[in-house]
Every structure is written in structure tokens, then in C-alpha cells.
Design brief:
Blueprint (H helix, E strand, L loop, with lengths): L5 H19 L2 H10 L5 H9 L4 H13 L7 H9 L4 H14 L5 H9 L4 H9 L2 E4 L3 E4 L4 E13 L10 H17 L4 H6 L2 H8 L9 E16 H63 L4 H21 L4 H4 L3
Antiparallel strand pairs: 1-3, 2-3, 3-4
Helix pairs in contact: 2-4, 4-6, 6-7, 6-8, 9-11
Length: 329
């Protein structure tokens, strides 16, 4: 009864064995390499699987390098670069492009650039076909106080030999912006800058801004330049406002000191009047004591009272105005 199922089991077993075989031994990749003239054995492909190196990455890269005439690229080199975390296909593409463009780029240099985190293939393309970097608007003030806002386009080419350890685009943009600010700031007036905007790019180019970077600056072109605010006038107005506030503060300080002095004088006058009142209050006591002690006679006292009455009458008469007698006209 079980005899008819034996061929089916055998067929399934054969399929499983072939699947495992072709998984660990990529026969068709070996055949493709053989047809392309790349020398590689099935055992080497099997060992790649054991080392967790994908033959589907190494073999096509070897074929591409062989067709491009890059004999210095070997299987061991590509495997080592892959195992260190590199991008094998990107490196091979870059080496082929560099070879066709006549750029001196070794395998060791390309792998070093790739492991440094830079796109070596893009770097080769930028070296062959320079790219343009647009700077953000940069504001600067000329000597006459007028602000100018400039935008520049920087044409750069990748410097293959400084990609490892060289500064990137951000440094280029920062240096170009600094150069624009310095150039505009040294101009006598904004009219001169507007008349000759190329003077900015010429001055910036002479500074050697690409030193220590991964790029070579080919040209700096001023794309746009606009007139901004009158910073000089604004600063003068702010200074005048500040001077006015200082003068007002000093005047208020002097007024406060005058008011305080006036109040102090009034307080002293009130104290003096209080002392006079207190002294006058002591006079009757002194007169009584003098009469008691016999130092003052009765006639002397009456004369004193008459003198006081006469003085009071004179004060009252002096306060009378002519209209009190004749009426107002």
C-alpha cells in the first residue's frame, strides 16, 4: 500500500537536497563568474556562506571590476571590506568611475573613504562633475551703515585625497559667509558693493577657504544682493534715545534731591517754630517767678503789657489795606 508514495518522498527529498545545495553553493553565480572570466571556485563560494559573506554581493562586484580592467581588486579584498562594515558595491562603482575618468584612486584609499562614513561613489562623481552649493542669505553692514543681504553660489569639486579627515560642506558655507561679511564690511559704502558685486567673490576666493576641507572651491558667484536696513541710522537713533533717557534720569535725580532738600528745610523751620513756641510758653512762668522773687515790679509788668499791646496794634494796622477803607474800585 505504501509503495506508490515512495517516488513522491524521493522527489521531495531531492528537492530539499537541491535547495540546500544551491543555497550554500550558488551554482548560477559561479557559472556567471566563469562565463565573465572571473576565477572563483564552488568551494570558495561555499566558504563565503560559512563566513556570512553574501556571494550575491562579492561575485557581481568582482565581475564589474574584471570587466573594467581593475586587476588589483581581489576576492579577499572585497570580503575583508565587507566584514569590516564597508559598502562593497559602492566602492567598486567608485573605482570603476575613477578609472574611466582618469582619477588616481587606489582600492585602499577608496575603502578608507568608505569606512570613514563618506559616499566614495558620490565623491568621485563630484570630482568629475562639480556641484553647486547655495549659501543661505548673509547679512553684512558697509562702513556707511547700510545693510546688504547677499546670496552666493559656490561651485566645488571633491578633493579625493582630503576626503578622510577633511571638513565638509558646512565648513565651506561658514567660511564663505564669513568672507562675504568681511568683504562687505570693508567697503566704504554699499553703492560700491552694488556697482561691483564681483569684488566680493574675488576677495573671498583669495582667502583660500577650501584649505583643510574635502572640497576644492572652483568659483564663488554672487547670485543675489539686496539692500536691507539702515543700521547706522538705527544705531544713532537708539543712542540718542539712550542719551535722552540718561538725561531724564539725571534731571529726575536732581529734582528729587531738590524736593528732599526743601522738605528738610521745612522740617527744620517747623522745629525752629516749635522751639520758639516752647520758649514763649516759658515767658509767663519766668515773669511770674520774677514777680515772686521781687526781680520785677508791678509797674514794670504793666509797661511790658502795654508794649505788647502797642506792638500788636501796630501789626494789625500794618495789615490793613487801603481798599478796606475806601472800598474796591
Amino acid at each position: 500500500m505504501a509503495t506508490p508514495y515512495i517516488p513522491v518522498v524521493i522527489a521531495i527529498g531531492v528537492i530539499v537536497v537541491l535547495s540546500v545545495f544551491f543555497h550554500f553553493v550558488p551554482f548560477f553565480l559561479w557559472l556567471s563568474a566563469k562565463v565573465s572570466g572571473v576565477k572563483i571556485s564552488l568551494i570558495q563560494l561555499f566558504l563565503m556562506r560559512i563566513r556570512n559573506v553574501p556571494p550575491g554581493v562579492i561575485v557581481p562586484s568582482l565581475i564589474e571590476a574584471h570587466k573594467a580592467g581593475l586587476s588589483q581588486i581581489t576576492r579577499d579584498n572585497l570580503e575583508a571590506h565587507y566584514m569590516t562594515g564597508g559598502h562593497v558595491q559602492r566602492v567598486v562603482h567608485a573605482l570603476v568611475s575613477a578609472s574611466k575618468a582618469g582619477i588616481d584612486l587606489s582600492f585602499e584609499k577608496a575603502t578608507a573613504i568608505d569606512l570613514a562614513g563618506r559616499d566614495v561613489f558620490e565623491a568621485v562623481q563630484t570630482s568629475v562633475n562639480p556641484k553647486v552649493i547655495d549659501t543661505p542669505p548673509v547679512g553684512a553692514v558697509a562702513k556707511n551703515g547700510i545693510q546688504l543681504i547677499a546670496k552666493a553660489r559656490v561651485t566645488v569639486r571633491a578633493n579625493i585625497h582630503q576626503l578622510v579627515g577633511g571638513a565638509g560642506e558646512d565648513t565651506i558655507l561658514a567660511r564663505v559667509g564669513e568672507g562675504i561679511v568681511s568683504s562687505i564690511g570693508s567697503a566704504e559704502s554699499h553703492e560700491k558693493v552694488l556697482e561691483n558685486p564681483d569684488s566680493i567673490s574675488k576677495l573671498v576666493l583669495r582667502k583660500g577657504l577650501d584649505a583643510g576641507t574635502a572640497y576644492e572651491i572652483l568659483s564663488i558667484d554672487i547670485a543675489d544682493i539686496d539692500v536691507g536696513k539702515n543700521i547706522g541710522a538705527t544705531l544713532q537713533m537708539d543712542q540718542a534715545e539712550a542719551d535722552k533717557n540718561i538725561a531724564q534720569a539725571k534731571a529726575e535725580e536732581r529734582r528729587s534731591m531738590a524736593v528732599a532738600l526743601e522738605q528738610e528745610m521745612k522740617a527744620r523751620a517747623q522745629e525752629a517754630r516749635a522751639e520758639v513756641i516752647l520758649a514763649e510758653a516759658e515767658v509767663p512762668k519766668a515773669l511770674a517767678q520774677a514777680l515772686k522773687d521781687g526781680n520785677l515790679g508791678a509797674m514794670d509788668f504793666y509797661r511790658l503789657e502795654n508794649l505788647k499791646s502797642d506792638t500788636s496794634m501796630r501789626d494789625n494796622i500794618s495789615k490793613i489795606k487801603p481798599e478796606d477803607f475806601f472800598g474796591k474800585k
